């Protein structure tokens, strides 16, 4: 058992109900558990890490952690012209083009990126564009092993699905197989590595997964006291699907089929009506907002303040490049201000009148930077039904990061959380400790050959891009879908 003290100019501790600050504070942890937060610890320590002019903060909890190094990067690249649209050919849902080694590289790279950005708990999301069916047991077996090897706190769950494609009917055999693989993974890996790896239940979007499978899945999650993440309230296509099933809005439909449960986490949840928000709050359901991923698709929550007003437990996920929780907090804060002052939603007319698209929407209490910091820390813990992560307090897991303020790029500092959100990015994270183990020190990932990993990940990304031609109905080269921003002259 080793006792370590980490010191910094600011420490973000916790008084039992909320985060609090200490100036020139210290956090002491023994093995994987915090035993002291405050000033002037008098007991024996084996090692002292002095981070100088920095913020010692709880690590971030990312409930939609992009872990495939590709889809989230290329989401912005698709041209908008219909003639250049990628059309899936007949290879769709037939074979798995990725090798075990490919998965291992992109997972290792992604987890390294999370650690680099101070994310200490992650519930991964991966693209499955070119998968044979959904994400496989094997892919997640590798991910759990990679996570264990690297020391990352992960919630892992292979996805499962019922439908081949929209309007293409379902495949009962593969549907059941993918579900039983997901449960097998849960049984095998939940709690592995002394609790570092946890399982979660991960059905594909509602349009891909049969109703009875969703219901069986949530009952399983409840029985195992495990989270289930299900995308919902994403837009018109989903509404039409729900109506075809005899529902009205998504959440009303969920309530009718018995899907609402505190175990449910809903990413995005963009188009929920006020009544649906009330219902979600009543069931204690958490929403995962992913500001960068959402805004790149032209959507955002209207508004964080409104969801908070309705009593929703709001959390943040990255789900896109940059995998940077600090920048996501900043963007969330900016989007919230935009919704609050509504300037952008007003149309100024020639006759001097103003059209206000949101005149019937009341004003909600403004969010503070602390609300966004809570979303990235304690609210994430609450969504996972945990009291031992997301905060620096005695008895909590030693998931600790340091953010450097001694950097001219940051500018002068004042309040630590305001400075972090306004002036810093994930690149300012210098130290990441997970479960008491130092995984990054002075911005170097320990035990990882970063140069080699970057080279390997580049090769896997190229493979991914080339798959577009292979899968495209018209066999067009990748440049048709990802044209260079400017012409290459060589
Ligand atoms: Zn998502």
Description:
Helix 2 packs across helix 16 (450-471), helix 3 (137-150) packs parallel to helix 4 (172-189) and helix 12 (325-341) packs across helix 13 (369-376). Among the domains are: 3-58 and 390-445, Urease, subunit C, domain 1 (Roll), CATH 2.30.40; 262-387, Metal-dependent hydrolases (TIM Barrel), CATH 3.20.20.140. It contains 17 helices and 21 strands. The chain has 490 residues and is an alpha/beta fold. Strand 2 (19-30) and strand 3 form a beta hairpin. It is globular and about 65 Å long. The model has no long low-confidence stretch (mean pLDDT 93). It binds zinc ion. Zinc ion binds at residues 64, 125, 231, 267-268, 319. Residues 64, 125, 231, 267-268, 319 line the site of zinc ion.
How would you briefly describe this protein structure?
The protein has 490 residues and is α/β, with parallel strands linked by helices.
